[in-house]
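Pilot study result, target chain (218 residues):
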Amino acid sequence: MIHVQSFMLVFTLLFLAAQGFAMTANAEKLRSAAPVYIKLEAEDFNGFDTKAWDWNMAWKPQWDRGGNSGWWAAKGAADASAGEIHLDAFIPRSGAYCAWARYEDYTGEPEPFDLIVSMPAAEVRARYGLGDVVITPSPYRWSFAWECRKLDLRKGPAKVRIALAGGARVRRGVDAVVLTTDASWKPSHRGFPPYAYATYLSKWAETRRPLKPLVADG
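Predicted structure:
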């Protein structure tokens, strides 16, 4: 009787292990198929309280133009030609990313700044604010703009930096950065990515069909 019980215990443990392996493999397959969205708020970076960078709270000028992504943003001084803020991040998948930056685009004025991603084996950078992305109607001087640069990122820890790229006649108002593998996605307004739960709910609201389980039964 003891041998039978031992056999059943071993069989049960092996069965549970196989189920766990199948669930893990299926979850990994789902993760690899889903696009990556990494949204970084500029106010969450480190390196403020310098002559180059300071926090910028959203007041009437920002909310007249759609509002900051959060309540705050970052502003680089117009009379500063160098200086950076930085944030530690993790890149979950290697590949081609579109690095979207939302910033204050002054009509007729460049607002040059760099986005730099430092990884253990490589460093990539992109420059923004060299020309008008949107044309702001008078009497306003600027509007929020989203601009994309292509970056090749590697999986693993990374340090993301926003650096002033020379002097300018206007401040560099940087609101948020989104790193995504979804080449078809284009941010609008404050640029919140399509969260998975919201996507499921939106699809269900259209069809009201039961969602398929993430792990197959049986």
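One observation from the pilot: The chain has three helices and ten strands. A full batch analysis is planned for the follow-on phase.
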